[in-house]
Amino acid sequence: MKHSHRFFVNETLSPGQTTYLDADDSFHASRVLRLGPGEQLELAGRDGRVFSAVVTRVDGFVEARAGEELGGRRLAGVELSVVQALPRGKKMDLVVEKLSEVGVTRLVPVYTEKSVARPRSGTDGKLERWRRIARSSAGQARRDRVMMVDGPCPLVGGLESVRGTLLALVTEADGRPLGEMVAAGASGAVGLPLSLLVGPEAGFSESELERMQSCGAVFVSLGPLVLRTETAALVACAIVMHRLGAMG
Predict the structure, then answer these.
(1) Cβ-Cβ contacts under 8 Å for 78 (sequence gap 6 or more)
(2) Domain boundary residue among 48, 73, 98?
(3) 135-162 pLDDT per residue, tens
(4) Does 65 map to a domain?
(5) CB atoms within 10 A of CB 46
(6) For 131, how many CA atoms within 13 A lie in the half-sphere containing its CB?
(7) Same domain for 93 and 66?
(8) What is the distance between the alpha carbons of residues 27 and 176, in angstroms, rounded to a whole number?
(9) pLDDT level of residue 95 (50, 70, 90 thresholds)
(10) Which residues pair with 109 in a beta bridge?
(11) Which of 14, 47, 73 marks a domain boundary?
(12) b or e along 52-84 (b: 16 or more beta carbons within 10 Å of the residue's beta carbon)?
């Protein structure tokens, strides 16, 4: 079967409805993918419902008409938030891209006491870029929704904003194996809100570890290996998704 590219629109769709892709998606669809009138694509609405669609017009923006709902293709949903310490350079672009692909619901970038990367002027531009990356990656992976990306905040703000069980990936203290912890706590309840905290490569301070414990965080581990923060985030999220039945 021919692969259909998926795009997201900020409205609720129904069969026969006509809509427009936004400027970035229109450019990608028409100039990069070379989609023209009569060609097929998929549209995901803001409620997560996905429809087959056909391009009806390309005139600056791409116009498309929704067809039948593709409910049978929808993926199992897991509500997973990730609180990620900001890495250096453009590594955050990679974190956003990969976590969006594996199906993370929400990404909360934070800076910690030992973080090298800190918000500076121009952060708004970075945030918009991260959100564009998340959107593009969700379409590539055929997700039903786009991962939300929050603006950077201090660690305490990230801890206070998360929902459900908080699993903190730490190397400074003994932690239970992540996979075992998720499997034991989930008991087959896919969709249970989970939050995962991934720290900076320099690690957490003692006061931060104490703060996590006061917030009810459970310390977990990926085993004896010490991974770069961007690698740890991807590996940890893949483990969680697998254990909850949303991957593999």
Answers:
(1) 103, 105, 190, 191, 192, 194, 240, 241, 244, 246
(2) 73
(3) 999 998 889 899 999 999 999 999 988 8
(4) yes
(5) 13
(6) 13
(7) no
(8) 47
(9) very high
(10) 84
(11) 73
(12) bbebeebeebbbbbbbebbeeeeeebbbbbbbb
Band of the pLDDT at 190, cuts 50, 70, 90?
very low
Quick one: three-class SS letters along 108-152?
EEEECCCCCCCCCCCHHHHHHHHHHHHHHHHHHCCCCCCCEECCC
Residues in the chain: 248
**Do the domain assignments include residue 15?**
yes
> Looking at residues 187-200, what average pLDDT do you find?
73
In a domain, 248, yes or no: no
What six digits make up the tokens of 139?
């379409």
51: domain CATH number?
2.40.240.20
Per-residue confidence band for 191, with pLDDT thresholds at 50, 70 and 90 = very low
Quote the percentage of the chain above a pLDDT of 90: 62
> Do 92 and 69 have their domain in common?
no
